[in-house]
Design a protein that fits this description.
Blueprint: H1 17-24, H2 32-51, H3 58-64, H4 69-75, H5 79-101, H6 108-125, H7 127-139, H8 144-147, H9 159-170, H10 175-183
Helix pairs in contact: 2-3, 2-5, 3-4, 5-7, 6-7, 6-9, 9-10
C-alpha cells in the first residue's frame, strides 16, 4: 500500500545534473522514432510520479508529452509495456553512468563501495526520484535482475559511507581498510564510451 503523497510531477530536471545528462546523452543522435519514444518515457515518468503507476493513463502520458494518444499507442500497446520500458531505460542509463564512473578502479571492494554509495547519494539528492525508482522497479521486477538491489530511501548524511563500510566488512575486509575505502570521494560521473 503506497501512502506517499502524489500530484507532484517528477522530471529529468529533478535528477542530479550528472544523471540527467546521462539519461539525455544520446537523444540528439537518435532516429526520430526513438526520440519520440524517449519523450514518451520521460512523460510517463512525470505521470507515474504524479498519479502512481496504477493511476496513470495512456491519454495522460500523451498529453504530458504533448502528443496524441494514438502516438502513445503507436509506440506502446499497454500501460504495462510503458512501465517495463521506463524500468529498462532507467536501469540501463543509470547503471551505465554509475559503472562508467568507477571503470578505472580495479579493486572490487572499492567498486562495490562506490556503487552502494551512489544509489544512497541519489536518495539523498533527489528523494522523489528514489521513490519513483522503487515504484517502477516494484511494477517491473524483471529489471531488478539488472540492478540487483538499490539501497534507496530516507537516510541521514554519511549513511552511504556507513553502508558501504558494513558491506565491505561483510565481505571480510578489515574494518580500518573498509572504512578508508568507503570514505574515498566518489569519482565523477562521465558518459560511457561506446
Amino acid at each position: 500500500m503506497d501512502l506517499r503523497p502524489r500530484n507532484r510531477l517528477v522530471s529529468l530536471r529533478d535528477l542530479p545534473s550528472e544523471l540527467a545528462a546521462a539519461m539525455q546523452q544520446d537523444n540528439a543522435r537518435l532516429p526520430k522514432r526513438e526520440r519520440t519514444r524517449r519523450q514518451l518515457l520521460a512523460a510517463a515518468v512525470s505521470v507515474f510520479s504524479a498519479r502512481g503507476i496504477a493511476g496513470a493513463t495512456m491519454q495522460e502520458i500523451g498529453a504530458t508529452a504533448e502528443m496524441s494518444t494514438a502516438t502513445v499507442y503507436n509506440h506502446f500497446s499497454t500501460r504495462d509495456e510503458v512501465v517495463h520500458a521506463v524500468a529498462a531505460w532507467l536501469a540501463e542509463t543509470m547503471c551505465t553512468a554509475i559503472a562508467a564512473s568507477y571503470d578505472h578502479i580495479g579493486q572490487a571492494a572499492e567498486r562495490m563501495s562506490i556503487g552502494n554509495r551512489r544509489y544512497i547519494w541519489l536518495a539523498e539528492q533527489s528523494p522523489s526520484w528514489a521513490l519513483l525508482l522503487l515504484d517502477v522497479m516494484d511494477a517491473a521486477p524483471a529489471q531488478l535482475l539488472r540492478i540487483l538491489e538499490y539501497p534507496l530511501g530516507a537516510a541521514p548524511p554519511g549513511h552511504g559511507v556507513a553502508v558501504a563500510t558494513t558491506v565491505l566488512r561483510g565481505l571480510g575486509v578489515p574494518f580500518e581498510k573498509a572504512a578508508q575505502i568507503a570514505a574515498r570521494p566518489l569519482p565523477a560521473l562521465r558518459p560511457a564510451v561506446a
